[in-house]
Amino acid sequence: MRRALPALVLLTSACTVTGTAVPVGGNLALVDAGRTSAALDAVKAAAEAVLSYDSGNPGAFDQAVAANVTGAAKDQLTQLFDQVRKSPQPVHLVTRVRQAAALEFTGDRVRDLAVLQQDSSGTNGLATVAFTALRDGGRWRLSDIAVNPAQPAPAPQPDDGSTGGLRDAALAGARAAAGALFTTDSSDPAGSYARAEAVVTGPLLDDYRAKKATYVEAIRKSGTKVALGPDPMAAALSLGGGRATVLFFTTLQVTDAAGRVTGRPFTTELDVVRAGSTWKATAVRPVTAA
User: Fold this and answer.
1) Is pLDDT at 152 greater than 60 in this prediction?
2) Core-most of 64, 66, 118, 185, by most CB within 10 Å?
3) Mean pLDDT score, 55-66
């Protein structure tokens, strides 16, 4: 991000929001692929409408909120856009959903993890958000907007060969792989590398082994300890054939040599593949602004 956008500053400074899991068997995300996709499309349209703003036509923003928002999300949007609406300078902010994956879907309620890109006057920035939406009278309305979210995963379905069980096994595997890949300690660089190497396979494993000395030295020189934040979030973008692509978000907790801790939002895509009873990463693609 070259320069912080007014709205993005508000988005990334919002409080992390927690949520609740749904009962086992209640999560139809990717199980009912057609309705999951339709719900994600509806949430995408609603999010892009209410998170864009043109100071030359403020009434359009109010109309978008009235049509697409309910419950707590109304107050959340008021807070997020308070400074933007008071700006003495013209604002033309366009928000697009870059990626989105369903965390849970129950037919009349959907929660998704989305990467937003905001553009204004040639500058751009990213934010990762968890949206909750409710179907009301045949229309999906946003009911909660959690920026830099840390929310518990839905209760997992048994790994019994069903689509839901495969999905949740892949997500658990992706979270475990992410914990090993993105957790490092400069006082134990060799151990940090070994933990990462143990959770990768295929081309990624070849790359790690070829660059082992470089990785170990980079960890040692960093002078930091990095850990995942609480309740890291993972949602499947695709699933099939013992493979999955997972959208993963956490706020990394980075501790420097003086003991100071800084939170760094981090979003990435992980390709994972089933390897016996475990899942291993075959590719990692950090999500950055276009």
Assistant:
1) yes
2) 118
3) 95
